[in-house]
Amino acid sequence: MSARQLHFNAFLMGCGHHQAAWRHPSSAVEQLGDISYYERLAQIAERGLFDAIFFADGQSAGDPSSGPLWFLEPLTALAAIARKTSRIGLVATVSTTFHTPFHAARMLASLDHISQGRIGWNVVTSMFDVEARNHSMSAMPTSNERYARAAEFVDAALALWDSWAEDAIIADRADIFADPDKVNPIDHTGQHFQVAGPLNVPRGPQGRPVLFQAGASEAGRELAARYAEAVYVVAYDLASGREYTSDVRRRIALQGRDETKIAFMPGLVTYVGSTEAEAQAKKAELDTLLPTKQSLAQLSTFVGQDCSDWNLDEPVPTLPPASDFPGPQGRYATILRIVETEKPTVRQLLGLLAAGGGHCTMIGTPEQIADKIESWFVAGAADGFNLMPPLLPHALEDFVDQVVPILQQRGLYRTEYTADTLRGHLGL
Ligand SMILES: Cc1cc2nc3c(=O)[nH]c(=O)nc-3n(C[C@H](O)[C@H](O)[C@H](O)COP(=O)(O)O)c2cc1C
Description:
This protein is 39% helix and 12% strand. By secondary structure, it is α/β, with parallel strands linked by helices. The chain is globular, with a radius of gyration of 22 Å.
């Protein structure tokens, strides 16, 4: 068995990552408020020996007519899921723009206790003005402001988690509960936060929950370089995966950290079939459920201009360079790359964006998908993947039951868990 092993996260999102998934006759659209649905999904991923399940998060309701966006809040949902799983890691998104370090550190530390050391934190700075308006701001601060706040936020959270020494608790009934010399203030005084500390949750099993990051911009990559212990990547193809991964690895090394320890996990949408045609048919079945008007409206937000009158069967009009685009850089750069390499029609672009928004898509037999995964892994474009099943639970089950065994046979993936914590699964 080779030393280096693949890592998989299951990115759980509503009925699945395809925007039309909820319209599918077999979708779980009636169960989105039922915690047992997510518990079952986590159990499937745990059966597949995934490192973690992952929940994204946002702070606005979206357009309720176009499909479900958010439902259960991730941290509270993970508390329940922790009780129905035993080994798999649990990663939640917490925004540094809208929370405070004390709140976030406290909830994540509490969850680390509840899950017995399986919590990860996807550090995000959030994106949209509609989110800001729910948090006493009229608009989002600039990206640079958000990332400056994020760095200070993470520093404060790390200090809070370290404010209880590992051996602080004595629990001597005849004497003291904890050694006060081992529970210390942090006295953080910065530009955004004043946090005295110590935290009011004693140190969790992992010490520090595992930090995930997915920055694409200069500031985002620098934040990942400083703090990330695992990185979510948007890469449409192997070349862009390798480009991103080697750039951020270089930045991590410049920070004096061991870049070989950090798992890079591009998002991966898979359609698995017993033949390639069957896999393509699964995709087409979802694509036909896509409402064109809404898809064009969403594309408008991705590219920062009104696309509602774009002709579906014409090539995508020329888009301004990334440097002229004021919104989230990562997805925009991906769209530019798809347009450049595939010269799609508008309709084709909508189909590609409908599942995973420009993340890598693999369509085929289990062997074909295993081959592609192996090629990314061997080329250094990925250490594993953040699986984005287009339709839940089916696409997750297909992957776990059909692709995972092949990767195991090839010695690329664990055949059992060898650790109890998320940190352990990631070899940190
Ligand atoms: C897999 C993945 C999950 C993400 N989850 C969230 C999320 O839940 N909430 C959020 O506001 N941003 C999320 N993001 C966005 C990133 O945090 C980041 O803003 C984005 O990749 C663009 O990078 P930039 O901020 O450096 O421009 C996610 C990105 C990726 C790739």
